[in-house]
Amino acid sequence: MEEVDKILIHSLRQAGTLVPPEIQSVRDFPPELVVEAAVRCVRVVRPALGAPLSTLLPPGMSARFRLASDLASACQELGFGGDVGYQTFLYSSEHDTRRLLLFLVEKLPRDEAGGGAEPPGKSGPLLRAIGARIRDQLVTPWVPPCCRTPHLQRLQGTGHLRPFSTCPLVLPHTGGPPELQEYFRGAAPPVPAQPPRPAGAPPALLETHAAQLSARRDWEAEWGGTGLASRLPPQEYVGRKQLRARLRALESLRQACPPRPHSPPEGPLDPAWLQGAFGAGGGAGGALPKGSRFTRTQHLTHEQDPQILLQQVQAAAETLPPSKSSEELVVEASSRRIVSLAGQWERHRGPLLAEYRHLRALRDSAQLESSRRLSEIRALHERSRSAAAEARRKEELCKQLVLELEALPRDVSRAVYTRRILEIVGNIRKQKEEIGKILVDTRALQKEINALAGKLERTFSVTDELLFKDAKRDEVVRKAYKYLAALHENCAQLIRTIEDTGTIQREIRDLEEQIEGETSAKPPASLDRILSDCRALREENAALAARIRHA
Prior knowledge:
Elements: H1 2-14, H2 31-45, H3 47-50, H4 61-78, H5 86-90, H6 94-107, H7 124-139, H8 150-156, H9 178-187, H10 201-230, H11 234-256, H12 271-277, H13 293-302, H14 306-318, H15 327-407, H16 414-471, H17 475-520, H18 523-550
């Protein structure tokens, strides 16, 4: 059982149980450690079931019994088939404790026994201890500062709560112009000194980190959609996006500003024009023009030069027919012109329509192909991200295993463990061979018993039939038939007695094994602990009764 206990203790430590290094066997587990190990395993297997349970045994006996009973119910809900109760945790034996802990360890997730990958490096135990402390604090209910006990003051602090106030932080980063790097190296204050109050550093860091995570998620979502659809590298896509933003801003300013007066291309801007463009001047010219592009185009059209408008009207008047011409001359010419224009339109319309349909079909097929390729690119991108995450996880696991290997003692030879493993495997193989031989002998014996029983039944049937025919005529044969029936019944009773004897012997062996297990559990010490707990419980009841009487 030594190797089994070592494996069990290692699994419990991975689950977050702080097993002291001097404990090397389940025999040395105190009740407090048994309760802590069971609660942490239950929390990993089913968090909702283990969250209300505390990993620490309370000082009061009634609270201890209540916690042990709730923990036993949780183990039964997880599917533990053995006998479990409050005594399993408070007055447990080595056999029962090992059986329960083995069941809980087998219920842990296979890939990560602690509910999450252990951080690499020497900080793994420290981070596990921090996580266990945080879980304990989350389970403990909040108590006002004036009502906290010394234990709660250590967990929740002694000061009053402060509002969550943040401020912007300037975080150094690599890249950029040399002036910015020089600022980060010399003039920029450190991050903890940037908030106006020392207590504002953690909230500011949390907000900055949340903003960075949000920006990264937005970029991943945008790059997974429109970014991949553009079929551009990330740098070029970002550059074009910034260029489009600048062009839109310039276009808005250009449309909102009045026409600039004629000035040399390289000369300075007119201050009066700038004041009028951006609302610094007075009067009607000081406000930016409003309205759509269509209204501004109409405004510019109506404000053209009158001389140009007059020339356009005269040119239109010259194209009109003389007023003295006949109406039939006008109708016929119009009809011929309409027919000619219709024919010309049809001649132009047919090829253009065919070309339009062809181009539209090409566009639809190109869009379908583009959509298909885009979906394939998204799938490949998702697969690459999952593969990269898996590679990072395996690299961290490899680093962790390498560090654990380096931390192992070098004075122990590997050949010793290899020889012990080979010996254990050899013993298991021999036991399997012996068990196989016993099973073969048992099956052969069972077959022989079945054959003899069948032969006996057939012989009895034939003999019974022969004697029954002659028993009607001969008195001696009648007595022999009675003796035969009595002999058959006595033999059957004897066989049943032998079978019952074997069953009783097996039960006796099981009871002897249970007696040995109870004997090895040191019942006098358990009995003394039970008596002391019973006395403590009586004292608690008496104290409560006295308080009730005084109240």
